[in-house]
Specification:
The complex is a heterodimer of chains A (397) and B (391). Chain A is an alpha+beta fold and 397 residues long. Chain A contains 12 helices and 12 strands. Classes of the chains: A alpha+beta (397), B alpha+beta (391).
Chain lengths: 397, 391
């Protein structure tokens, strides 16, 4: 028995192919939108992974350090190390700021960390880890900085010695890693004018500038210029330790807030990026519905265009089954071409997006199943229309 | 028709092939790209980096020892001073008068000694006469020419004269002591007077003039600061973790903020015993090899201290050293899949090499860079570089 569907496609293969490609581009957009949504959630999750911590210790009553500002004394890390179940503690600071390199500018999340402690990027794609205690930086490749370049942050120049990949903040800003002490200075040290004003203000305060206590003013001013704050302390626990229990101890006795990994994910995904992710997700849903409708219309109209030929088929005695399977096969073929084109397109243009687009194989498989289902559903309408055709229309009238 | 069919089938096969290739190599199913490097044996030149500020090893705060008013200040900031030079003077108030008074008291004490000496001479003479008279009367009494009563009276005269002589001797000694006391007083007042004069203890440069004439300063409050410019050095803060191999006498490169292009040679002069507990840093004082005076005190300086070279050490790029839990190790390739291999690492150099003490042999390949975090059993593809380096 000859394959009617194949014959028909061969007859008008150009039209069929271009319809498939057009459909494919639409499916590609839908897949990309799904990728954008996944990328957004992944940005938040990857940030948690990159911190490499089991517990986040932040200021009491805050959702820090990512969702709310938090500041903690940097010697807290040492107190925590004494607690049972804690293997490593690392101070970190986070600050989103604009940095410049020559004429290039980039919006980055500046991360201060202590080499060898939690908070350090786990892997590099080029260069080396920080070796000096000051004025070196690791940059994410998304910043556009290259190895050996000098990046100016406030009053110091930092040399980019290593490059990282997928180190981004929850809003997708690439990270720039610098030594903790430098980061503390960047975050808390004021500009020179502010410093001078502050000194003058202190000097004019008679409580601090007493004539019979030499050295008091200098001591007060020195204490104002020094900063020993960080945004969070990242903890890695001993393998047998229970994160909830340790977090509970810290909350109860240290007057600090501690979040486990699950809680941090909840804060980031469910609160920080919730609205923007929902926004994208809504758009994705609408796009998927629109795509499905367009697929259905295309198949329906394609069938209606062939209504005269179908009538002829009926006239010469083709069974309903033959006609239905022809339409169904064509619809599925169209879906297959569309999906392949769409997947290819999405794969090729995804890396061009400024923010991360994550194409999951699971999404692709789901997409494929949906496309096929949609095509099959749409073909049922077309089949109904085809079966209702009066064979007489083949002869005219 | 069949030709067209064949062509279409061929096209479909090509498209399917391209699709398959794209899905398996470009997307999330693709093998993770990594780069590898061999563990190499060679000399490792290590160094430690720190920042510090220029300070004077010896800085002198010249201050009065008692609360007083400044009478005059003779030098200003930037003036060179010689050792012993008068730089400022406090108002002596009544000290000059007291010096004069004590000088006069000392002169008076000299006269007091002379009086006591004269009195002693007189008493001695009197005692001698009384003694002779008694001898004579004793002889006469033996012959019975005088009465016993008269002899007793002469004996009393002799004893009285001798007592007077002893008293005069004591008075002379007292006069001497008196003179010593007055002299000591005079010298004390003189020293007090000298204390109001601030002298530079060394040849150096005045770095601060902190009070002006007429101002009253408390004891110990600086009026003038003097530093010895030959003793300028960089007080460098070094991470405690990296400070273990620093020894006095090691060479260093100093880069001043004002001259970022030139590295000035220096040497480690002293490693301070007290570290900073808050910042977890150790203070290392690095002196300039040649005496410099054009560096400002307080200027920021970057110091790279050169540590002894490690001869023929096995090393790998520092980026390859990873940590899993408490265990240090590297990722190695076994049949295109990665395995974690525990190693024991030694020193890390500023150039990004890490010495390997245990766990690897020369020529072993380790994974240096990867596109993603690695996990055991992950399939990878070895490439030359992950990020194309700029020409």
């Amino acid at each position: 028995m000859i394959n009617l569907a194949g014959r028909d496609i061969l007859h008008g293969w150009g039209k069929f192919l271009f319809t498939g490609i057009g459909l494919g581009l639409l499916i590609g957009v839908t897949l990309t939108m799904a990728g954008v949504y996944r990328g957004m959630v992944d940005d938040a999750e990857v940030m948690i992974d990159n911190a490499g911590a089991d517990l986040w210790v932040v200021q009491q009553d805050t959702l820090g350090p990512y969702a709310e500002p938090s500041s903690v004394r940097d010697d807290v890390a040492r107190d925590l190390l004494g607690q049972r179940g804690i293997a490593q503690a690392g101070n970190v600071t986070y600050l989103t700021m604009q940095v410049s390199q020559g004429s290039k500018e980039a919006r980055v999340m500046l991360v201060g960390y202590e080499p060898g402690k939690p908070g350090e990027p786990e892997y590099l794609v080029a260069g080396r880890p920080l070796a000096r205690a000051h004025y070196e930086a690791l940059a994410d490749i998304k910043t556009g900085f290259a190895l050996g370049e000098q990046v100016r942050i406030r009053r110091h120049d930092y040399t980019v010695v290593g490059l990282t990949r997928r180190m981004v903040s929850s809003s997708g800003d690439p990270m720039l890693f610098i030594p903790l002490k430098d980061a503390q200075e960047v975050q808390f040290l004021k500009d020179n004018d502010a410093l001078l004003n502050e000194r003058a203000r202190t000097a004019s305060n008679p409580a601090f500038n007493r004539p019979n206590v030499p050295g008091l003013l200098e001591a007060v001013q020195a204490s104002q210029a020094a900063s020993h704050f960080v945004n969070a302390v990242l903890l890695r626990l001993q393998p047998e330790a229970d994160a909830q229990a340790v977090a509970g101890e810290i909350r109860r006795w240290q007057h600090l807030q501690a979040y486990t990994r699950a809680q941090m994910e909840d804060i980031l995904v469910a609160r920080l990026i919730a609205t923007s992710a929902k926004q994208i997700f809504m758009f994705l849903v609408i796009l998927a519905i629109v795509s499905a409708a367009i697929v259905a219309f295309i198949i329906y109209t394609m069938t209606l265009n062939k209504i005269r030929e179908i009538a002829v088929l009926k006239l010469i005695g083709a069974t309903n089954r033959t006609i239905s399977s022809m339409i169904l096969q064509q619809a599925l073929g169209l879906g297959l071409i569309g999906f392949m084109v769409g997947k290819l397109a999405a794969t090729f243009w995804a890396p061009l997006f400024p923010k991360y687009v994550l194409l999951l194989p699971g999404d692709a498989i789901k997409g494929f199943a949906l496309v096929m289902l949609m095509c099959a559903l749409a073909s049922t309408f077309a089949i109904r229309a085809a079966l209702r055709v009066d064979p007489a229309t083949a002869i005219g009238g | 028709m069949s030709k067209l069919k064949i062509r279409l089938i061929a096209l479909a096969a090509v498209v399917a092939g391209v699709f398959f290739w794209v899905v398996t190599t470009q997307g999330p199913l693709a093998a993770v790209k990594v780069t590898v490097d061999k563990a190499g044996v060679g000399d490792l030149s290590n160094a430690v980096f720190g920042v510090g500020s220029i300070e004077a090893r010896r800085s002198y705060n010249l201050a009065p020892t008692i609360t007083s008013r400044i009478a005059r200040v003779l030098v200003d900031q930037g003036d060179p001073v010689k050792a012993g030079q008068l730089v400022a003077e406090m108002d002596p108030v009544d000290l000059d008068a007291r010096v004069l008074s004590s000088q006069q008291a000392a002169e008076r004490a000299v006269y007091g000694i002379r009086v006591a000496e004269a009195q002693l001479a007189e008493a001695q003479s009197r005692a001698k006469t009384a003694s002779a008279a008694y001898e004579r009367f004793a002889g006469l009494r033996t012959g019975g020419f005088v009465s016993q009563e008269m002899l007793d009276a002469k004996l009393h005269e002799k004893n009285a004269a001798q007592a007077a002589e002893a008293a005069a001797t004591a008075a002379l000694a007292s006069a001497h002591l008196d003179q010593a006391r007055v002299n000591a007083d005079a010298s004390g007042v003189g020293k007090l007077r000298a204390q109001t004069r601030l002298l530079s203890p060394v040849a150096g440069i005045v770095t601060a003039r902190l009070a002006e004439p007429g101002a009253t300063v408390v004891a110990g409050q600086s009026v003038i600061q003097v530093v010895d410019p030959a003793s300028l050095w960089v007080k460098t803060r070094i991470e405690q973790k990296q400070a273990g191999l620093i020894r006095s006498g090691q060479n260093a490169d100093i880069v001043l903020r004002s001259q970022p292009q030139t590295a000035i040679p220096g040497t480690v002069k002293r490693i301070e015993l007290l570290g900073d507990t808050i910042t977890e840093e150790r203070m290392v004082d690095v002196a300039f090899a040649a005496p410099r005076v054009d560096a400002a005190v307080g200027e920021l300086a970057e110091v790279t201290i050169k540590l002894p070279q490690l001869q023929q050490a096995l090393s790998i790029p520092s980026a390859a050293v990873k940590r899993q839990g408490q265990q240090e190790g590297v990722w190695v390739l076994q049949d295109k899949r990665v395995q974690f291999q525990a190693v024991k690492s030694g020193l890390s150099t500023l150039a990004g090499r890490t010495q390997i003490l245990e766990g690897l042999a020369a020529g072993d390949e380790v994974i240096v860079y990867s596109q993603q975090p690695l996990s055991a059993g992950l399939k990878v593809k070895v490439v030359d570089e992950i990020v194309r380096s700029k020409p």
